# Entry
Amino acid sequence: MKYLVSVDFSDITNLVIRSAKVFATKLDAQLELLHIIAPFTYLPYPEGLSIDIVDMDIIQKAEENAKNLALEKLNALVEYLQPVKANPKVIVDTPFAEIISQEAENNNMDGIFLGGHSKNLIEKILVGSTTEDVVKNSKVSSVVIKAKEIEKLDHLLVAYDFTNICDKMLDFIFDTFKSLKPKITLLHVDKGINIQISPDVSQTLEQSINDAKLKKLNDIKNKFSEFYSFSYEIINDKDVAKTLEEFANKINPDIIFVASKRPKLLERIFGGVEALRILRQSTYPLYIFKTEG
# Structure
């Protein structure tokens, strides 16, 4: 397994690095530490000063110095990560989210470790969120670290909604964590039937769906219980992100697994994606699973 670790040297970096070390140690994964520097030619220049008369040699030297300094810092992190195998890499380019995604996809990474920064509304509008952009648009799974870091992998919380991608996520968890045998709690947040039909038909249809869901959940439980301590919960609520966070606060998992498809164009524009709502709401480490990468 190989994971890309996005390093920006902000205050979240230590949590991300420590989390990646625990994850890689437990699952025998390799890491690539990536730091991205914006090209110096994008810096604002005094009014009336053309880039044509700027000494490009000075700019190139400044960029090279910045790369060397970043590489020195990354090498210190590589040393800290031992015995985990980790390689440092510095890229001068922009936009950051696109470069992170391309690096992960081009190198067949299993996932991307990212720090989830707390930004107010104005900052999100003016600057955007690199982490959210990667989560929305990358083909590769993301592991997002926010207020809490990964200290162990003894208890996994899995958000499940009966979609094909959730089943693929369960297969991934089943195969990946066999050697660790963590406790696994599956949570399904049932939002009910949102179809305009008669009450009698609605009740019959809902009962049929619930029976099918219970059968599927019990089949999953039977499969996992052979190797894992496994249980599931069903909670009726319309707000998946809020319910998931409240449930997590009760059981205190080490990491939460959420499945996500790449959004359609309108979803990318308006942010109407359940995984993004969970990302914004949750304080726990999130493994946002994708299958396209």
Observations:
- The domain at 152-293 is CATH 3.40.50.620 (Rossmann fold).
- The two ends are 13 Å apart (CA to CA).
